[in-house]
């Protein structure tokens, strides 16, 4: 895998929700964090001489994406507040590393409205089903 481009920065990580880039007018995302979870299966027994042992394959896999930003319009807030459809196609691509893509649920959404500041938001997306990873070439 090639190294990160010299001077790589956070704006080189692009988040798309339902095929719309979120650094644009839809959401104004400024911070993007991704966590890949591989829940291990403990198979430790007396034969392991006190050393914890796990299966090679995780018991459950999931991906979580947390974003923060500045509200640009109501589109994202409306999607997050929907009582009937909180699923979205999400893709996070990072230059020099690759892209994660799949169906995610919006598990939480938070608005911040501090006096004399922009209205901000935070949201967490949790994978629902398989997430694919495509390494950068």
Observed structural traits:
elongated; 137 residues; 1 helix; 47% strand; single chain; Thrombin, subunit H; eight-stranded antiparallel β-sheet
What would you say this structure looks like, in words?
The chain is mostly beta strands and 137 residues long. It has one domain (10-38, 56-135): Thrombin, subunit H (Beta Barrel), CATH 2.40.10. The protein has one helix and eight strands. It has one helix at residues 75-81, and strands spanning 13-17, 20-21, 29-39, 60-70, 87-94, 98-112, 120-127, 132-135. Strands 1, 2, 3, 4, 5, 6, 7 and 8 form an eight-stranded antiparallel sheet that branches. 15% of the residues are buried.
Helices and strands, with pairings:
Elements: E1 13-17, E2 20-21, E3 29-39, E4 60-70, H1 75-81, E5 87-94, E6 98-112, E7 120-127, E8 132-135
Antiparallel strand pairs: 1-2, 1-5, 3-4, 4-7, 5-6, 6-7, 6-8
Number of domains: 1
Structural class: mainly beta
Instruction: Indicate the CATH class.
Output: Mainly Beta
SS summary, helix count:
1
Q: How far is the N terminus from the C terminus?
A: 7 Å
Kindly identify the CATH topology: Thrombin, subunit H
Q: How much of the residues is beta strand, in percent? A: over 45%
What's the CATH architecture?
Answer: Beta Barrel
Rg, rounded, reads 18 Å
- Give unreliable regions as ranges: none
Arithmetic mean of pLDDT? 84
Q: Profile the largest sheet.
A: 8 strands, antiparallel
| Total DSSP E strands | 8
Q: Which word captures the global form?
A: elongated
Listing every helix as H and every strand as E from the N terminus to the C terminus, the arrangement reads EEEEHEEEE
The percent range for helix content is under 10%
């Amino acid at each position: 895998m090639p190294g990160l481009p010299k001077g790589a920065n956070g704006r080189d990580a692009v988040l798309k929700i339902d095929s719309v880039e979120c650094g644009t007018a839809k959401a104004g995302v400024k911070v993007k964090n991704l966590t890949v979870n591989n829940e291990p299966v403990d198979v430790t027994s007396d034969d392991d001489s006190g050393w914890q042992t796990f299966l090679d394959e995780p018991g459950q896999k999931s991906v979580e994406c947390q974003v923060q930003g500045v509200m640009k319009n109501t589109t994202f807030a409306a999607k997050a507040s929907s009582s009937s459809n909180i699923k979205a196609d999400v893709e996070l691509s990072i230059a020099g590393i690759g892209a994660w893509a799949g169906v995610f649920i919006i598990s939480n959404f938070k608005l911040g409205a501090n006096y004399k500041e922009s209205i901000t938001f935070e949201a967490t997306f949790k994978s629902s089903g398989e997430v694919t990873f495509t390494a950068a070439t």
